[in-house]
Write a structure and sequence with these properties.
- With 64 residues, this protein is mainly β.
- The chain has a single domain, classed as Thrombin, subunit H (Beta Barrel), CATH 2.40.10.
- It contains no helices and seven strands.
- A hairpin with a 2-residue loop joins strand 1 and strand 2.
- The radius of gyration is 11 Å and the shape is globular.
- The chain starts with a strand and ends with a strand.
């Protein structure tokens, strides 16, 4: 379960409910949009990528 996601050193760093880091994803010029207890999203260009608590991509959506 995700308790916190922060931008740090050009990465999105994910922490669980025990404050342990569970994932670190390069932002690659993107921006952290937000997170829930089960996922977080990063926008790169016009595409939004969604990842699970372990940093595995679960979806992507091309936007405007």
């Amino acid at each position: 379960m995700i308790s916190l996601v922060i931008e740090q050193n050009l990465c999105a760093v994910v922490f669980d409910e025990n404050n342990r880091q569970t994932a670190s994803i390069m932002l690659s010029g993107g921006k952290l949009l937000g997170y829930t207890s089960g996922s977080f999203s990063i926008k790169r260009g016009t595409t939004i990528y969604t990842y699970d608590e372990r940093g595995r991509q679960i979806s992507s959506k091309i936007g405007f």
